Amino acid sequence: MRLFRALCPPAAEMRCRPGIYVLIVMTAYLAGCGGGPAGTPRSVTPSVITSTPAVRAPVGSAPVTSPSPFPGRTATRVRYVFPVRASNVAFHPTHAKYPATDLFADCGEPVVATTSGVVLEVSLRDRYVEGSPDGPDNGGLSVSLLGDDGVRYYGSHLSRVLTGIRAGVRVVAGQELGRLGRTGHANGVCHLHYGISPPCARVGDWKVRRGVIWPATYLRSWRDGGRKSPVAAVAAWERSHHCQA
């Protein structure tokens, strides 16, 4: 009951769906979730990416000019959008083993691009074997996006990736990437494993890609239409860790 009250204070209790919060309790058992995309990801180097026609950004997404502490990049005006498009989404501020967040909602809810950018990696096949050690197959079906702000955003355990979402494709904030599911090491619970990181090697560096800074504070902001940017925190982690997770 304390956990329920912490995540759903009395003022908001009527908006909470008990079924979702039963799943929240299960986050303590999701120690292996979000390791990385399964199979051999298809990838391209961002410098040679060509654009595809953009789609209209959703109403209510907040534009923000992000500073760019990443070498060789300039400040860019971007939008930030909450990554699951559903009326009831719950997430915990912590995660087992490393900084990331699990977002719980009904199976099949749309998963969308956090911001405009270019798709880095896509996993279209679930190769995870139950009981396997942490590794690049943990995430099942997944999408990794390099945002125009220089930050990488990663979502995994999808039930499907939309047709046309592939490495090298340009997307805009709020564009649908796939559907929420439980592939990979999701312990049978539908949720989106969500990680924020610098691009580092851009592809294949699953330990960094799965998450290196805590996303919850940004998720709260974006859910409320805010403009909080992870650029500075990601750049600080990169400077101090030299991309070693």
Précis, in short:
It is built from five helices and eleven strands. With 245 residues, the chain is an alpha+beta fold. The longest helix is centred in the C-terminal third of the chain and has 11 residues, at 231-241.
Report the CATH C-level class: Mainly Beta
Please state the structural category: alpha+beta
Percent of residues in helical segments? 10-25%
| Overall pLDDT score | 79
User: How many domains in all?
Assistant: 1
* Low-confidence spans: 1-32, 34-67
What would you call the quaternary organization? single chain
Q: How many strands?
A: 11
Q: Main beta sheet, described?
A: 9 strands, antiparallel
CATH superfamily: Glucose Permease (Domain IIA)
Work out the strand percent: 15-25%
CATH architecture: Distorted Sandwich
Q: What is the name of the CATH topology?
A: Glucose Permease (Domain IIA)
Question: What would the principal axes of the Cα set say about the shape?
Answer: globular
Report on the structure:
The chain has helices at residues 2-7, 18-25, 206-209, 216-223, 231-241; strands at residues 62-66, 76-80, 90-91, 101-104, 110-112, 117-123, 141-147, 152-161, 170-171, 176-180, 191-197. The N and C termini lie far apart (35 Å). Mean pLDDT is 79; it is low at 1-32 and 34-67. The longest helix is centred in the last third of the chain and has 11 residues, at 231-241. A hairpin with a 4-residue loop joins strand 7 and strand 8. The protein has a single domain, classed as Glucose Permease (Domain IIA) (Distorted Sandwich). The strands form two sheets. Strands 3, 4, 5, 6, 7, 8, 9, 10 and 11 form a nine-stranded antiparallel beta sheet that branches. A two-stranded antiparallel ribbon has the order 1-2. It is of the alpha+beta class and 245 residues long.
